[in-house]
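Table S2 (text version). Query chain:
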Amino acid sequence: MIVGEMKYGRMKYGYVDKNGKTIIPPRYDEATYFSEGLASVRIADKWSVIDKSGATVSKLNLGRPVTFTEGLAPVKFNGLYGFVNKGANIVIEPKFESASLFSEGLAAVKSGGKWGFIDKSGNFAIEPRFNEVNHFKEDRAVVRVGELWGVIDKSGKFILEPQKFDYIFDEFYGGMLNFSINRKSGCLDVDGKVAIEPKFDDIYVFEGDATAASVDYKHVFIDKKGRILPISYYFEIED
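Corresponding structure-token output:
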């Protein structure tokens, strides 16, 4: 947990454990939460990476805080993005216009004004051809082509051809993807097929076999086929 302490008229930050015991004394001008055992900290204008003992992993000035996922973090150097490992060593050369975190072995990067996906060697697994992308989850990613939204698999093949939605969620949860069309909410399954017809006012994301939804200004619970469960609880939605 990050804690702050006023020192000489300036706030300094450090870390304590869940019992409030000081692990790393407040000595940083800025600090981030730990991710995969590492955190970014700033002293003056220099950002570095520390481990949970407070030891500096690398003296490389990253210029900004970084977040590690799957052992890598996107970092901007001289206007272009590459990736560093947990030793803050560059492992994918900075050559991309923008970059996101790795998820399920792939990271979204922007090149030539379009988004695609690279593997951990820095090679394109899916060539850049999208206007917008979200990270992979459950082997699927939501992408935008022009004003249309679709879903691809890890080969870049569309499992849901781009089409118009009022809204589409950025990733799958429990094998379901929420969408809205004509102001009504439904869900797609991992094959891109409509599992729940758009007939609800709203549907929460699935984290199990059931989720909450609203219909006709009432809250209900539904299963993955859109059936209202017999244990449903109704109450008026408050403004």
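Notes on Table S2: The CA atoms of residues 1 and 20 lie 8 Å apart. The chain has no helices and 25 strands.
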